[in-house]
Amino acid sequence: MYSLNVPVPGAVQRLAAELHPRLTAFETVRERYTLVVKRLGDAGEPTAATALPRLREQLRGPLADVAPFDARITGIDYFERPTRGTGPVVYLAVDSPALAALHERLCNEFDPIDGLEGEDYVPHVTLARGGSVADAEALAALDVEETTWTVRKLDLWTTEFRESAATIRLSG
User: Fold this and answer.
1) What is the CATH number of the domain that holds 148?
2) For residue 140, which of 33, 31, 19 has the smallest C-alpha distance?
3) How far from the centroid of its chain's Cα atoms is residue 47's Cα?
4) Could you read off the pLDDT of 87-120 as tens digits, one per residue?
5) Which of 6, 10, 45, 121 is the most buried (most CB within 10 A)?
6) What does the alpha-carbon distance between residue 11 and residue 16 come to, in Å, rounded to a whole number?
């Protein structure tokens, strides 16, 4: 399985690291941070070696005129009952109209996953999951410094190897 992700900049990683001591009450704390734009599946291919070139080709059209865009961390929030896995899920909330528009464009090319994508898409960087709603509420009440960055590239992420398999530069 693949997904198209926004690389999380150092400033956001530092913010997450600063929050780490407050996340110890949760069952799982993320050590690697991602911002998923769209889950892509495997391009109908039996192996990762053949799926990657096909996905790159399928993305060429939808990404051809996408220019670099801004994204902004606006605070901490949580999903009390996530669509998948244990809850609550605590995350850094991301605001970016251009990211939302790109997600919508990609949902027209690749089927959206019910409950996660399309109208249900919430751009975010997951920090932790599992634990109490009270702990999630306490974190969501914290003020964090807004962090803005310019997205200049996207990573084609492979869940099989848990790493970026390709980078796509935005040139619009």
Assistant:
1) 3.90.1140.10
2) 19
3) 24
4) 999 999 999 999 999 999 999 999 998 889 999 9
5) 6
6) 9
